[in-house]
Every structure is written in structure tokens, then in C-alpha cells.
């Protein structure tokens, strides 16, 4: 008992010492995060904010100290713009002892962006790239004295402007020089290596933050430090897996001779050759103190399981352990031998990924991913940072919530977009665990960029450090060096045509001569694409800038249509791989913090302020007008709740139509990927997202569970006015063909009972494929029966024909509208009374998750039932309905509602649920 008490008091004393002095006394090789008791102030100073922790940014610190209101509310994106134009200082006290270590380095893993760093009276250095790790040797200052650690930040807005002014006037400008005015953003983001979206985007606000957005660590050791591990895993002969492990060692900041042994283990998996377990190293690090060592390991194929994408198999991961031990550990009696040892563990997956681009039957090139020799139809979305403020973007719980939401919607791929960030280690670990393949852009987007030597120097460092850090994750499927810059240059987006040769040379210099070889030198496990969209291998043949980078016969395409009727499936053809497509909608009415205090007119003005698309809200309204009745009085209290509902319904219908056509076109047009834009948001604003900022699902995301389902029934009216019905099966097991029965039920809008049923039985559906069920002249059929298309719709059900118990097993259901909803006669859809009752409610104290079972009853069929919690339930977070925006052609339906309810304090009653339907609008 006494020993336990002594240990407890020792721990308390150690923690107090660290908090007060940031003082290092450990005798082991280790790292210590300097995350406590920083002070932040502006340069005058008008504002002094004490006791801040890391990671940090000035906007977050000012919000927490209530100097400013929330950046994400009202008009604060503009009201707080002074923050990004002000210089700021971070300071703390640091004391350390270095006598037992040969190396003590102060390492900044993320500084946003322009800073000068001092320790006491010494200037350690400057930073100019938020994606780069900076290391400083401070061993001679670690004598037990206390020094002030000071990080002086310069405004990135001012720095970008000054760089633009200092450029040679004889050279063409780096374009675009400024974002569109409607962004309320800042200029010259492309001249600096900072998250490009932080100066504003068409979906996001300007928040040009400064701060220490990743860890600051003291690293202390006496021999060599293992910084990064990379792997190249391939199938070898004799039923073996070959693993080439790359070890990146560091010896401070200068060249040193090292002598020691590297030890390799895959925990729980025997190596095929015992001699591979260790490697003697006697070498000299380079001038920066870095050394790269390779070791080849082999394991028997049957000793491990393969890693598979979500929906195709399990995500089995193995721990690879690497240890460095200096020869002095065994040859000399050392007082602190652990300081001569460094260890690192990563989790790896045994899988192969290929980007196949063989010649296609239509004369173009295929473009698809093969994982473990299985062609994969990529289903998913595009990932933007989870927060516009970098220090919040690594929030582990929120990142987990978003990635689980992607997994649960049957996604198997996300595209990490090039205007954001290299994500956190936590992000990549979760992607590995959830089977989410990653199409990973390097962080260049929608712009031309400079190619001066200093810019290329920092880019090389950025690419090396981040690719090394991320490379071993099995989820990463492909790299692309930029987003949309090839197509921007070819199609003259930024008026580059007059100086095309200059901009072309800059493009090649940056991506082909700088970024591409850096990635390829580190990562021999993956394909590197020069751009997205591009024609893949065909773009390389056309000197990196294809004549038409959006050619549907090659590579990947980005497709957006804002003025034709997006509900019409006949519009969509698809390319080989559609890596961006989508449509805007408004966040839920209850998601706007201002909804309760603003009038309808005031809310409309705020929504227009946050609508950053240069086209404004017109595309959203136009698409609603094509298909739905539109509320007419913007001053009415019901205007925005109704318009928001219709916008989300329209977005869901458009993405549904487009995605399902792409899935059906797997055989006809060799389409093998559909990644809609975009998964998540950074504030409550009109955007293309399926998940609002904070975690509320739009109707689209609820629908995605069916749209992306591995066993799905797709139906749409094609350009010849035929109904196409397709059976889609992404699953691999069992490997034999299945027999599906498909029933088409023709309903009048006002009737629970179908007018007619058309059955198609024993449709043969092979694994990992699509199969046509029928192409049918549905309008000719209706004409013969004297039925009006506008009064009818089709409900479709697919069942597995043969099951072990002899009973049909329902696999999928879908619907097809045969005319625009606005053309439905009101007599067919008289207002239907929808009643919601709470059947049961359970809340778990363990995970603060409340689950409510709801019964939705109707007296007549209800069209697109939209359920929402009232604003009074604002303490509940990330509330999701198991079904929403649904067609209810049965009197009773059960829906589950789940919410995060801290402390299980809330009680949801029936009156807390609001209901909207299209029926109400058609009746007016």
C-alpha cells in the first residue's frame, strides 16, 4: 500500500513539474509533447490569452476566450476577418536536461504557416509550409535553465499579398489571383503552402488561421531514431508474400556514423526465413542526419489473411515491429542503454491494388481498380477537411463518425481532395480498419502554381515527409498530384491561353519533374496519376495535358450539370470513372443556429451570404422548378423549411439517378467508379455535401444506404423512353450465379394497392457484376391501358429465388417516377394525415447513445416523408433516422432514430418530430 502511495505521489509530482516548466528528465529514448500552458497574444498586444493547449489556432483560442463569437455563426466569417490579417505570438517556458542524451531535438510537426521560432535569445529558424515538419537541435540549451519558447506568426493573408507584389512583373501572374467575390475570401492562396481552402472555397468560408496545429515534441535519444516505415507488399513465387520494409533513420541534423542492428517482426506471423529477422547496419547518415535502409521479409501465403475493401471481405491488419539497437548496447556497459534503442510499430495489410488501363472495345482505355485481382466498382465520395480550422480537423471522434457514416453507406472509396490537408494518422488507421480505399490527391487544387526554386524546395520536403508518413496504409489505393489543374489549363479556366506555353512549362516543372518523381521514389507500391480528372495513360501520351481531359473514353471525369433536368436519368452516360459529380442543397432548417431568431427574410439573406457558388441559389431553385411545386412567398414562415426540404429531396433524386446509371453502365460503357461530391461540410451553408457540418444526415446520405447497396435493383427511363431494370451484385461469396425474382408494381399515387404487377423470374445474376432484367416500353403499356403516366409510379422489389428454407428473401427495392411530381393531379394525392408515435426509447449511459423506435402511420400513400427533430432538441447531436424522405405505400412503417445524448438527459416525445410530405404541396 505504501509503495502504491509513493508511486501515486511521484506521478502527481512529475505531472506538476511538466505543467509548470515543460521540463524533461526521462532517461529513455522517447518523445514528450509540449502541449500545456501556452500563452497567445497579438503583436501589440491588445489580446492576451493564457493557459492554452495544443493543438491550437488563433480562431479557436479567441472563441474559447470569448474575444470573438463562433466563427461558424451569423456573419462572423466576415466580422472576424481581422484575425487573419493580424500577427500573433505563441509562447511557453521550456526547461530540459540533455546530459544523458547525444541528441535533443525540438520538433514542430505542424506550424500554420509563416513563423519565426526562438528559444531564449536564440533564433531557431523560420517556417513557411504548414504541411512540413521542422526540427531544431537544442541540446546545448538543455542545461536545466528555463528558456522562453516563442513562435512569432506572420499573417498568411499579408504574406501572400506581399509575395504577389514581389513577383517579377515581366512574368505572367500565378492565376487565379483572387477567388470570386462571392466567396468573401482572400487572394493569392496559390503562392503559399497552406491549406488552399482556408482562403475560402465555393463550399467554405475564409478562415486564414495561424497556430501550432499539430504536436510540438522534444525528441531525445543517443543513437538513431526510427522516423518512418514504408512497405511494398507483393505476391512472390512459392506461395509467399514479399514485404520490402523501408526504414528511415535519423541522427539529429548532421551526418553521423552508426553501427547497430535492425530487428523485424510481424506479430503473430512467422517469417519464412529466420535470417530476415535482423539486419546489421554500419553506415553514415546524410548531411541532414537521415539514412534509408531496406530489408526484404517473406511470409507464407497461408499464414496471413488478405485485406479487402468494404463489402468484399474482411479488413485484416497485422502489426509490423521494427527495432533499432546500437551496437554499443551490447558491447559497452552504458548507464542508460535504452537511449540507444528506437522502436516503431505500424499495422499493415496484405493486398494488391492495380489501376488497370487496358484497351477497351470502344477504342479507348479502361480505368478501374483491381484489388487482390478482383475488379472493384468504386462507390463513395470526396473528402474535404472535417473542419476549416486545421487544429479542429484532426478531432478523432468527429473523423470517426464521418468515416463510419461512409462505411455504413456501403462506400468502399473516398477521394482525399487536393485543396485540403494530408490527414491525421487516426484518419488513415480508420480507413484501414473500415476498408475505405483512398484516392489521395497531393495538396494542389484548382490553380496554377509558382515554380521558383524556394517554392519547389519546400514542395519536395512536403511531399517526402507526408508520403513517407502515409505510405504503409493498405487503404491508400492511388496518388494524384493535383486536383483539376490539367483540365483548368487545357480549358482556359483562368485565362491562361495567351501565355499557354509558360503555364504549361510551370505545370510540367511542378508536377512531372518535382512532385511525381518524389512520390514514385518513396512509394513503389502504387500508381501515381498526374492529375484528376485526366485521361490517365492517354494524358501521358499527349505530353501530360490531354486535348480533352474530360474524355469519357479514358481515365476519370468530373461531371456537373446545373441547368438540365438532373432528375432525368437519360442525361447521364458516365465515363470510365466518375470521380466527382453532385448537386447542391440547403442544410436542414433546424441546423441553422439563426433559424429561431431570424425572420424568413433575414434567414434568406444569411443563406445567400453563405452561398459561395457564383451561380447562387439559381441551380437549386431551377431543379426544384423542373420537378416540384415551389413555395412562392419568401417572407412566409413556412418558406425556408419547405424550400430546404425540397432542395434535399431534389439533391437526393439527382445523385440517385446519376449514381444508379453509372452502376448500371458497368458493362455498356465500362464505368467502374462513382465518387459523388462531397461527403462532409465545414459550416452550415448551401453545399454539395450529404452530411451537414456537425453530423446531421441530409436525405441524400440516408438514401445512399440503398443507392450504394452491394445487392441493388436499379431502374430508370432511358433516352428512348424505355424502362431499364438492372440487377446489381457487388458481392463475391458465394461465387456461383444467383437467381433473382423481380416484381414491378404499378401504383396510382393515391392507392396502397397496385394497379398491376409484372413479374420477371429467375434472373441470373453473377457475382461482382450487373445483369439486365428487362428493357420495357412502359409508356406504350400505359397508353394501351388508358393510364396517365403522371398519376402513376413504379415500385420494384427484388428477391433471391432459391433460399435454404425455400422462402424468397427480399434483396432490394426501388422506385421510378413516370412523370414530374408537379404534374401529378392533386386529386390523386389529397393531403394525407401522417402520425408519428414513440414506441420505445432507450439510452445507454456507456456510450451516451439514445435509440428511439418510431411508428409512422398514414391514411393514404405519403410521398417522400421527411422527419426532423424540432429546434428545441439542440442538445442532441448527430441525430439520424434509419429511413427518411421515403415513399410510404403501406399504412404503418417503423423508423429508428438514434442520437448522441450526453448524460442521457433528453426524452424524445412524438411532438418533437416534425413531418413534411410532397402531398401537402401538391394539394395547394
What are the defining features of this structure?
single chain, 924 residues, alpha+beta, 7-stranded mixed beta sheet, 19 helices, 47 strands, 33% strand, globular, disordered N terminus
Topology:
Layout: H1 2-21, E1 23-24, E2 30-33, E3 38-42, E4 48-52, H2 58-64, H3 76-79, H4 81-84, E5 88-97, E6 103-108, E7 111-112, E8 114-119, E9 122-127, E10 134-137, E11 143-154, H5 156-166, E12 199-201, E13 204-206, E14 211-212, E15 216-221, E16 225-236, E17 240-250, E18 257-266, E19 278-284, E20 290-300, E21 318-326, H6 328-331, E22 341-348, E23 353-356, E24 368-371, E25 374-376, E26 378-383, H7 390-393, H8 396-408, E27 413-416, H9 425-434, E28 437-441, H10 453-470, E29 476-480, H11 485-490, H12 500-522, E30 527-529, H13 537-541, E31 556-559, E32 577-581, H14 600-610, H15 618-627, H16 639-664, E33 673-676, H17 699-707, E34 711-717, E35 723-729, E36 738-748, E37 756-765, E38 769-776, H18 778-784, E39 792-800, E40 809-817, E41 834-844, E42 849-858, E43 862-869, E44 877-881, E45 886-888, E46 892-900, E47 913-916, H19 918-922
Amino acid at each position: 500500500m505504501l509503495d502504491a502511495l509513493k508511486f501515486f505521489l511521484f506521478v502527481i509530482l512529475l505531472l506538476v513539474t511538466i505543467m509548470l516548466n515543460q521540463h524533461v528528465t526521462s532517461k529513455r529514448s522517447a518523445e514528450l509533447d509540449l502541449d500545456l500552458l501556452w500563452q497567445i497574444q497579438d503583436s501589440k498586444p491588445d489580446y492576451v490569452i493564457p493557459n492554452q493547449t495544443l493543438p491550437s489556432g488563433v480562431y479557436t483560442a479567441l472563441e474559447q476566450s470569448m474575444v470573438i463569437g463562433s466563427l461558424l455563426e451569423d456573419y462572423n466569417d466576415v466580422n472576424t476577418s481581422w484575425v487573419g490579417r493580424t500577427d500573433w505570438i505563441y509562447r511557453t517556458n521550456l526547461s530540459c536536461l540533455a546530459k544523458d542524451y547525444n541528441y535533443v531535438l525540438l520538433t514542430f510537426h505542424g506550424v500554420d504557416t509563416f513563423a519565426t521560432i526562438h528559444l531564449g535569445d536564440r533564433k531557431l529558424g523560420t517556417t513557411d509550409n504548414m504541411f512540413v515538419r521542422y526540427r531544431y537541435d537544442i541540446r546545448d540549451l538543455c542545461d536545466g535553465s528555463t528558456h522562453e519558447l516563442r513562435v512569432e506568426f506572420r499573417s498568411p493573408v499579408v504574406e501572400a499579398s506581399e509575395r504577389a507584389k514581389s513577383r517579377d512583373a515581366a512574368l505572367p501572374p500565378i492565376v487565379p489571383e483572387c477567388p470570386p467575390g462571392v466567396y468573401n475570401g482572400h487572394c493569392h492562396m496559390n503562392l503559399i503552402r497552406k491549406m488552399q481552402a482556408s482562403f475560402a472555397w465555393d463550399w467554405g468560408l475564409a478562415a486564414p488561421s495561424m497556430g501550432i496545429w499539430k504536436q510540438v515534441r522534444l525528441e531525445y535519444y543517443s543513437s538513431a531514431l526510427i522516423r518512418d516505415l514504408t512497405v511494398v507488399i507483393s505476391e512472390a513465387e512459392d506461395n509467399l508474400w514479399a514485404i520490402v520494409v523501408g526504414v528511415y533513420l535519423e541522427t539529429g541534423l548532421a551526418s553521423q556514423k552508426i553501427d547497430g542492428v535492425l530487428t523485424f517482426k510481424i506479430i503473430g506471423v512467422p517469417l519464412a526465413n529466420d535470417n530476415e529477422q535482423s539486419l546489421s547496419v554500419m553506415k553514415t547518415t546524410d548531411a541532414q542526419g537521415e539514412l534509408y535502409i531496406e530489408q526484404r521479409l517473406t511470409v507464407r501465403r497461408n499464414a496471413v489473411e488478405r485485406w479487402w475493401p468494404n463489402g468484399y471481405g474482411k479488413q485484416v491488419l497485422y502489426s509490423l515491429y521494427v527495432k533499432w539497437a546500437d551496437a554499443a548496447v551490447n558491447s559497452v556497459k552504458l548507464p542508460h542503454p535504452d537511449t540507444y534503442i528506437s522502436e516503431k510499430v505500424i499495422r499493415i495489410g496484405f493486398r494488391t491494388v492495380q489501376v488497370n488501363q487496358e484497351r477497351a472495345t470502344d477504342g479507348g482505355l479502361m480505368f478501374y481498380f483491381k484489388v487482390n485481382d478482383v475488379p472493384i466498382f468504386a462507390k463513395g465520395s470526396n473528402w474535404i477537411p472535417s473542419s476549416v480550422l486545421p487544429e479542429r480537423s484532426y478531432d478523432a471522434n468527429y473523423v470517426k463518425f464521418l468515416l463510419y457514416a461512409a462505411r455504413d453507406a456501403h462506400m468502399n472509396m473516398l477521394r482525399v481532395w487536393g485543396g485540403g490537408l494530408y490527414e491525421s494518422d487516426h484518419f488513415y488507421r480508420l480507413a484501414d480498419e473500415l476498408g475505405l480505399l483512398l484516392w489521395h490527391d497531393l495538396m494542389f487544387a484548382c490553380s496554377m502554381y509558382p515554380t521558383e526554386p524556394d517554392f519547389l524546395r519546400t514542395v519536395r520536403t512536403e511531399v517526402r515527409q507526408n508520403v513517407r508518413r502515409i505510405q504503409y496504409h493498405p487503404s491508400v489505393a492511388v496518388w494524384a498530384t493535383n486536383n483539376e489543374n490539367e483540365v483548368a489549363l487545357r480549358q482556359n479556366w483562368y485565362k491562361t491561353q495567351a501565355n499557354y506555353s509558360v503555364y504549361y512549362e510551370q505545370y510540367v516543372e511542378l508536377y512531372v519533374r518535382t512532385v511525381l518523381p518524389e512520390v514514385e521514389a518513396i512509394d513503389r507500391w502504387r500508381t501515381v496519376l498526374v492529375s484528376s480528372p485526366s485521361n490517365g495513360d492517354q494524358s501521358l501520351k499527349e505530353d501530360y495535358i490531354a486535348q480533352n481531359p474530360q474524355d469519357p473514353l479514358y481515365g476519370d471525369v468530373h461531371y456537373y450539370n446545373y441547368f438540365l433536368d438532373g432528375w432525368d436519368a437519360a442525361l447521364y452516360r458516365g465515363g470510365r470513372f466518375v470521380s466527382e459529380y453532385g448537386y447542391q442543397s440547403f442544410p436542414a432548417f433546424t441546423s441553422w443556429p439563426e433559424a429561431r431568431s431570424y425572420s424568413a427574410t433575414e434567414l434568406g439573406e444569411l443563406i445567400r451570404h453563405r452561398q459561395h457558388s457564383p451561380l447562387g441559389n439559381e441551380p437549386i431553385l431551377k431543379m426544384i422548378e423542373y420537378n416540384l411545386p415551389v413555395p412562392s412567398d419568401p417572407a412566409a414562415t413556412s418558406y425556408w423549411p419547405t424550400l430546404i426540404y425540397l432542395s434535399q429531396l431534389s439533391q437526393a433524386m439527382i445523385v440517385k439517378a446519376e449514381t444508379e446509371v453509372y452502376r448500371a453502365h458497368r458493362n455498356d460503357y465500362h464505368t467502374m467508379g462513382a465518387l459523388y461530391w462531397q461527403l462532409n461540410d465545414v459550416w452550415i451553408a448551401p453545399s454539395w455535401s450529404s452530411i451537414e457540418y456537425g453530423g446531421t444526415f441530409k436525405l441524400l446520405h440516408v438514401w445512399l444506404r440503398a443507392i450504394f447497396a452491394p445487392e441493388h435493383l436499379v431502374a430508370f427511363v432511358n433516352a428512348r423512353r424505355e424502362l431499364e431494370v438492372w440487377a446489381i451484385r457487388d458481392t463475391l461469396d458465394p461465387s456461383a450465379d444467383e437467381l433473382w425474382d423481380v416484381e414491378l408494381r404499378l401504383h396510382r399515387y393515391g392507392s396502397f394497392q397496385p394497379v398491376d404487377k409484372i413479374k420477371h423470374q429467375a434472373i441470373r445474376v453473377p457475382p461482382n457484376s450487373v445483369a439486365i432484367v428487362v428493357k420495357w416500353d412502359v409508356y406504350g403499356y400505359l397508353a394501351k391501358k388508358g393510364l396517365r403516366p403522371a398519376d402513376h409510379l413504379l415500385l420494384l422489389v427484388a428477391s433471391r429465388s432459391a433460399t435454404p428454407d425455400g422462402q424468397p428473401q427480399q434483396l432490394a427495392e426501388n422506385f421510378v417516377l413516370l412523370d414530374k411530381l408537379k404534374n401529378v393531379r392533386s386529386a390523386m394525392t389529397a393531403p394525407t394525415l401522417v402520425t408519428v408515435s414513440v414506441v420505445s426509447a432507450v439510452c445507454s449511459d456507456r456510450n451516451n447513445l439514445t435509440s428511439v423506435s418510431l411508428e409512422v402511420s398514414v391514411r393514404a400513400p405519403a410521398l417522400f416523408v421527411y422527419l426532423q427533430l424540432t429546434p428545441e432538441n439542440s442538445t442532441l447531436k448527430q441525430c439520424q433516422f434509419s429511413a427518411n424522405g421515403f415513399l410510404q405505400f403501406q399504412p404503418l412503417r417503423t423508423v429508428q432514430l438514434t442520437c448522441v445524448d450526453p448524460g442521457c438527459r433528453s426524452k424524445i416525445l412524438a411532438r418533437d418530430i416534425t413531418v413534411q410530405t410532397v402531398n401537402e404541396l401538391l394539394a395547394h
